[in-house]
Each structure stands twice: as C-alpha cells, then as structure tokens.
Amino acid sequence: MGYPTRRHHSLLTRLPAILLLGACATSISSATKIPLNKLHSRGNRYQWKRDDDIGNGSETLNTVLLSNVIDQSYTCNITLGGKSVEVQLDTGSSNLVVPGEIPNSKNLSIPLNVTYAGGNGTGYIETAELEFAGYTIENQAFLNAAVSQLSSGTSGIIGVSIGNASSIRYALNSSAGDTVLDSIFRQNSTDSTNNFITLLLGHSPLEYSNSGSSQPFLENQENVFTIGEVVDGYEQIYSSPKLPIALQTPYETLLDANGVIGPDGKAINTTSLYGNSSQNDQLSVLLDSGTGVTLLPKDVVDSIYGRVPGAQRIVNASDLNPELASLPTLWRLPCTYEVNVSFSFAGQQYPLSPLDTSLNLTGYVGIQDSQDQDICIGGIIEIPPNFINPTKLGAFDAILGDSTLRNIYMLHYFGSFVDGSNSSTPEPYIQLLSTYNATAAHLDFVNTRLGGVDSTGSQPSLLSN
Ligand SMILES: *[C@@H]1O[C@H](CO)[C@@H](O)[C@H](O)[C@H]1NC(C)=O
Ligand SMILES: *[C@@H]1O[C@H](CO)[C@@H](O)[C@H](O)[C@H]1NC(C)=O
Ligand SMILES: *[C@@H]1O[C@H](CO)[C@@H](O)[C@H](O)[C@H]1NC(C)=O
Ligand SMILES: *[C@@H]1O[C@H](CO)[C@@H](O)[C@H](O)[C@H]1NC(C)=O
Ligand SMILES: *[C@@H]1O[C@H](CO)[C@@H](O)[C@H](O)[C@H]1NC(C)=O
Ligand SMILES: *[C@@H]1O[C@H](CO)[C@@H](O)[C@H](O)[C@H]1NC(C)=O
Ligand SMILES: *[C@@H]1O[C@H](CO)[C@@H](O)[C@H](O)[C@H]1NC(C)=O
Ligand SMILES: *[C@@H]1O[C@H](CO)[C@@H](O)[C@H](O)[C@H]1NC(C)=O
Ligand SMILES: *[C@@H]1O[C@H](CO)[C@@H](O)[C@H](O)[C@H]1NC(C)=O
Ligand SMILES: *[C@@H]1O[C@H](CO)[C@@H](O)[C@H](O)[C@H]1NC(C)=O
Ligand SMILES: *[C@@H]1O[C@H](CO)[C@@H](O)[C@H](O)[C@H]1NC(C)=O
Ligand SMILES: *[C@@H]1O[C@H](CO)[C@@H](O)[C@H](O)[C@H]1NC(C)=O
Fold first, then answer.
1. What integer is the mean pLDDT of 245-274?
2. Which residue stretches, if any, does this entry annotate as coiled coil (predicted)?
3. Please, which pLDDT band fits residue 97 given cuts at 50, 70 and 90?
4. Count of alpha carbons within 13 Å of 2, Cβ hemisphere only?
C-alpha cells in the first residue's frame, strides 16, 4: 500500500477563546464534566440499555464513555504503562500523544513534533502497554509530549483516524508505529467486518443548568465511543447510506450538491475548492470530534446568519470584550432567535439543534459584552483561510465538528485503510444516523433561551438574501 506519504495531518481545533482564557478554562472544564453515574439514572429516549455495565467507563465490551468538556471537546481515560491518563478523543488525527512520565515505557529516542490547528507538542516516541476500549496492546507507540492549548483541560490526545496520517507511523516506517486503531484491528486480521468505530456525542448540561428547565432533553444523550460494535438502540445506522471516503483524509466525505440547508429550509449554493472536481457543488467535509464548532466556507456561513435579523458579523471579537481577542471571525446572534440548519448526505437530511447553531458564549466562558449583555454566537463559523491550505492541514472545504456531531451518530468503517490490509478488503465508508428530535430540540431552545415561553412563532422573519 502507498504508505505513508503524509508527515502529519492533524486537525484538533476548537473555538480558541475558550481555551485561551487561561486559568478560567481549567476551572470551567473540570466543573462541567458529566458525572458518569448520572447517565443511567434518567429515563429518556437516549437511555442506553446496558445499565449494569456503566461504571468506570473502561470496562464494558469495546465501549468507552467520554466526558463532555463544555461542548468543545470530549475526553476519555486510557491506561498506558499501568497509569490512567485522560486524553481528548480526536477523529481528525491519528497519533497517540500523552504527556507526563509514563511508567514501564520504552524510550525509542526518536524526536517528533506534532502540530495541530490549535496547538502543538514536542517530545520523543516511546512504547508502552495500552489498555483502551477493552483491548490491550503490548507495545503501543506514542509520542511523549504535552500538546499546548487544548480546550479539554488535558494535554493528551488519542487520534482515532487512519494510520497513514500518523507521523509516528511515518517516523518508524513499520507496523511498530501503528496507530491505536491499526493495532487493535490487526489483532484479528482474518476478519475485517468489525473494523469500525462509532461515536455518539451529547450536549453539555451547562446551558440547561442555567435555564431552570426541569426537563431538558438533549442533555440526556450520552457520550460514547465504540470499536467494532454499535450502541444499543442505534442499530438503524447499519441501514444508513454508505458514504464513500473522499480523497486524502479518513473522515472526509462529500456533502450532497448544495448540501447545506439554510434557515429558510432551502439549499444554499455551495462551491467546492477541494471536493469532487467533476462536480464542484459538493463540499468535501471532515467529521472531526477534535473541533468544537462547525467550520464552513465564508459565503455559506454568511448565507445562514446574514439572514437573521439583528445578527452581526464580528471580525474582531475584542470589540465585544477584550478577553475574546483570540476568537476568529464570527457571527453574533440575538440569543432568542431560533436558527435551523441541516446538512444533506446521500439524499438524507441531518438537522442541527438550534442550541448548536447558536451557542451561549457567556454560558461557556462567563464573558459578557461591554453593556453587560450575554453573547450568543453562531455555532457555524467561517473556516479560517489557514485551515484550507491543502499542503498543510489537508484538502477539504469544511469541518463538521462537535456542534454538528452532537446531532449525528457516526460510524466509520476503515476497511482497506487498515495497515496491512490486502486488496480484497472492502473499501472504507462512513454511515450517519440523525439523532435529532425536532420536538425535543425546539423545546430545549424555548426552555433555555426563551424562559419556557414559545415566542418563536412571532420572531421577525428572515431577511431576504
Ligand atoms: C492512505 O491509504 C489509503 C489506502 O491505502 C490510500 O488510498 C491513500 O492514498 C493514502 N493516503 C495517503 C495520504 O497516503
Ligand atoms: C472498572 O470496572 C471493572 C468491572 O466493573 C473492574 O474490573 C475494573 O477493575 C475497573 N477499573 C478501574 C480502573 O476501576
Ligand atoms: C477519568 O479519570 C478521572 C480521574 O480518575 C475521573 O475523574 C474522570 O471522571 C474519568 N473520566 C472518564 C470519562 O471516565
Ligand atoms: C528519551 O530519550 C531522549 C534522547 O535519548 C531524552 O532526551 C529524553 O529525555 C528521554 N525521555 C524521557 C521521558 O526520559
Ligand atoms: C521540533 O521543534 C523544535 C522547536 O521548533 C525544533 O528545534 C526541533 O528541531 C523540531 N524537531 C523535529 C524532530 O522536527
Ligand atoms: C506551538 O505553540 C506555541 C504556543 O503554545 C507557539 O508559541 C508556537 O509558535 C507553536 N509552534 C508551532 C511550530 O506552531
Ligand atoms: C520504509 O520502509 C520501506 C520498506 O518497508 C522502504 O522501502 C522505504 O524506503 C522506507 N522509507 C523510508 C522513508 O525509510
Ligand atoms: C477473528 O474474527 C473472527 C470472525 O469474527 C472470529 O471467528 C475469530 O475468533 C476472531 N479471532 C480472534 C483471535 O479474535
Ligand atoms: C444558485 O444557483 C442556481 C443555479 O446555478 C442559480 O440559479 C441561483 O441564482 C443561485 N442562487 C444564489 C442565491 O446565488
Ligand atoms: C464525482 O462526480 C461524478 C460526476 O457526478 C460522479 O460520477 C462520481 O461518483 C463523484 N465522485 C464521488 C467520490 O462522489
Ligand atoms: C447564557 O448563560 C449564562 C451563564 O450561565 C446565563 O446566565 C444566561 O441566562 C444564558 N443566556 C441566555 C440568553 O440563555
Ligand atoms: C421526541 O421528543 C419528544 C419530546 O421530548 C418526545 O415526546 C418524543 O417521544 C421524541 N420522539 C422520539 C421519536 O424519540
């Protein structure tokens, strides 16, 4: 196989302000971890059936429970060299990067730098025994380094993307440098059927806890990562269309032609720079749990939020509050305006909750504007120009990060992308199952943003485009 040509491909990013708020970020993230014992105490539509299995998050079959860090990242615990370490789960990269001293490890003395869209780390490649998702890997290669500026309050990352985007695999140039998933999948090379992962992301209780809402719905969805199995109750995902993998990166696939449905329910014209060259109205998108928000081309973002009465495009967020100086260009929205947006893949629509198209930034970081007003911003942000440089981060038009993935259960079958696979191994694909419930999503918006009184029927009409 053409293995590997890319030195690094790393897309771990998120809304920078949230992490650049220094001490604040740490206290927020530790305060908002969802207690795991809460997950099965609630009766709701997302109830996970294996109640008896929910415990310390590392023991059930091949399932890992994740912590939601203020809706901007999702973390889990791995055991490396016998030590438990909390790391951020990233579907947009493929190295394992772990800070601090790891016991029982072997230092290969090979130096490596990793660069993410929002941070970086420098250290040496080591190997140690890894326990993750019910699997044990004897000599898992990892980079012993702390990644700067992660929003998760951790400085380690487990990249669960394909192998040939791994700079550790590249540096070792052998299966000794296999990624965590390659190591796991190669434990049974006779059958590739179960060489897939799934990811189910929930909403942070943060916003709901501020709302006085007694019955928030979206919060109840659990945060679960699985290997080779589907979460109980979500088997329907097997019937979802199999989306082919677009070139270059693992989770990159194509939206339908003009596959962003705007707030008026109509398709927005889209033009791809990097997608299918024979059909350039399909955006190529990366489904990336390491990015907190959703990043789309500027013209598409403007077509969405430019139609919201009272919305403003803010180039310098420091105009709102000097502490927000590090934020990229964004749209500020009236907090009470409900905005609905959907994506379309293979003819199926995947709507976003209005609490994901509009984020209460004040709720997340405790910062208001100079008039002491709450700040709500679009959860869809124009993709910064430096992200769409194909020679650096990759060739894609958009990143569908956590604000999208909280509304979709995702399965990624790796097939022939697994290191060492042969030509008879099936091609990889992605399947997506909407977890959106229109009634629940709307009610949660009404309860959190409108004090429980549904005035959306009389909200001002969208502006014309
Ligand atoms: C990664 O591996 C796949 C499968 O072998 C291949 O099609 C793809 O071109 C490779 N990508 C890179 C960047 O090497
Ligand atoms: C997690 O739970 C399992 C089964 O309940 C137990 O065997 C294991 O030791 C626990 N692990 C930790 C780290 O507590
Ligand atoms: C990870 O371990 C820490 C410390 O033991 C614990 O507080 C946290 O809840 C664990 N996270 C998960 C997702 O299990
Ligand atoms: C690993 O080896 C390198 C080079 O030999 C050394 O500089 C580095 O400190 C070692 N790392 C640890 C954690 O000991
Ligand atoms: C890593 O980055 C440091 C600082 O920029 C540089 O000095 C070093 O040479 C780099 N190491 C590698 C292996 O690229
Ligand atoms: C790595 O991150 C630090 C901030 O933590 C920054 O100063 C430095 O320029 C970054 N290095 C690279 C190579 O991006
Ligand atoms: C990597 O290993 C292969 C053989 O497995 C070899 O052909 C190739 O030249 C090596 N690449 C580098 C950069 O060392
Ligand atoms: C590999 O997978 C096949 C089919 O699922 C199974 O029958 C076999 O027991 C597995 N082997 C190992 C070593 O797990
Ligand atoms: C979208 O594209 C269609 C077909 O090319 C065109 O007729 C229409 O005017 C475009 N709409 C906008 C808003 O640009
Ligand atoms: C690219 O577009 C062509 C023409 O519409 C189509 O036949 C082909 O299947 C597309 N490729 C992908 C990867 O969607
Ligand atoms: C945003 O969150 C803040 C802080 O928790 C809360 O006080 C406020 O009511 C929320 N604002 C809106 C408009 O929901
Ligand atoms: C959608 O949410 C509503 C309100 O919470 C609930 O009554 C209904 O059962 C849910 N529908 C499905 C299909 O889960």
1. 86
2. none
3. very high
4. 3
